[in-house]
Amino acid sequence: KKRIAVMTSGGDSPGMSGTVRAVVRQTIASGCMAFAVYEGYDGLVKGGDMIKEMGWEDVRGWLSEGGTLIGTARCAEFRERPGRLQAANNMIEKGIDALVICGGDGSLTGADKFRDEWPSLMEELVTKGLRSKEDVAPHMHLNIVGLVGSIDNDLSSTDATIGCYSSLTRICQSIDYIDATAFSHQRAFVVEVMGRHCGWLALMAGVSCGADFIFLPENPPTENWEEEMCTIVRRHRDMGKRKTIVIVAEGAHDRKLNHINPKMVKDLLSNKVGLDTRITTLGHVQRGGPPCAYDRMLSTLQGVEAVKAVLEATPETPSPVICIVENKIVRKDLIKAIQMTQQVAKDIEACDFDAAMKGRDAE
Ligand code: ADP
């Protein structure tokens, strides 16, 4: 029986538990054995009880759970070859040579590196006397399939990552709460949302909540943004608006990469526009809570597709990442998707914002 393991890694996102459920159940339904690796790559490096066989009923009720019930972590050891050798040894011990990973671009980069090195890791296990030739012979190829779990919606090649719509929903609910009190007191609120390199949450929250001004990393405001923002906010007030909402992405900056923080924006609204202004940093409420219906659907459909991809893979096919493009669940080249994603971050660092915006738009 083929043995397929599922793991969640990197930053958590709502829908990860549903993904594990879908992978486990589709694996069992396909006549294979399902395993879960607990605590991300930490569990893979530690082995033993951290890699557990999963039954159908072990994931009952997981679809509506937030976060990831098998845990996630950042693991320094896996970044080095000895850590990956240890991980490979633990997988061979359990007879596992297929790994479905739900995480961000860092986790998926690590996974592809692991697959690349796998044949040489097998050789090293034999030469070091850790495993016999017979142990490794049936497992000379590692099968990796990626699923993108991230609240930021920051991976190129897919329209939505697992978790981003739950997070967006939570932000909108929070801004609705803020709106009511802002209206009552005619106040301004500067709302900081997550997104270090990716302004998707800030942009879509702004559109969904009718914000007055939005600060995004990919498309920084004009050089005299202070004046521009104040003029726009004043105009909205002159038109009779009783509240002001300005959304700042965590990674917002000006066109010279100077960080724009909520305090700077608050001081401008207080001192230049004369508004009673407060700051709300939404923080981790954006990551928590139950997944929205869209993320339950996405985690289920993509989890099923990931297992199909494992079963159809050959040593020649490049590692796939499961995406959604124009409402269809599709497989894309994992490495290309990561390269395109990292290119946007590089474009931002080089202040080439036109290229960054094109990169975001690109498939
Ligand atoms: P995310 O997956 O959310 O982007 P990280 O970038 O922190 O999160 O990556 C999660 C984990 O994946 C890291 O702690 C590390 O164990 C592993 N990882 C990330 N990048 C690499 C890499 N280049 N090589 C090996 N492992 C990596």
Automatic annotation (TrEMBL):
Ranges for region N-terminal catalytic PFK domain 1: 1-363
Active site residues per record: 152 (proton acceptor)
Cell location: Cytoplasm
Domain of life of the source: Eukaryota
Annotated ranges, domain Phosphofructokinase: 3-310
Chain positions recorded as substrate binding sites: 150-152, 187, 194-196, 250, 278, 284-287
Positions of Mg(2+) binding: 105
Annotated residues for binding of ATP: 11, 74-75, 104-107
Quaternary structure (record): Homotetramer.
Family note: Belongs to the phosphofructokinase type A (PFKA) family. ATP-dependent PFK group I subfamily. Eukaryotic two domain clade 'E' sub-subfamily. Belongs to the phosphofructokinase type A (PFKA) family. ATP-dependent PFK group I subfamily. Eukaryotic two domain clade "E" sub-subfamily.
Role played: Catalyzes the phosphorylation of D-fructose 6-phosphate to fructose 1,6-bisphosphate by ATP, the first committing step of glycolysis.
Descriptive protein name: ATP-dependent 6-phosphofructokinase
Species of provenance: Saxophila tyrrhenica
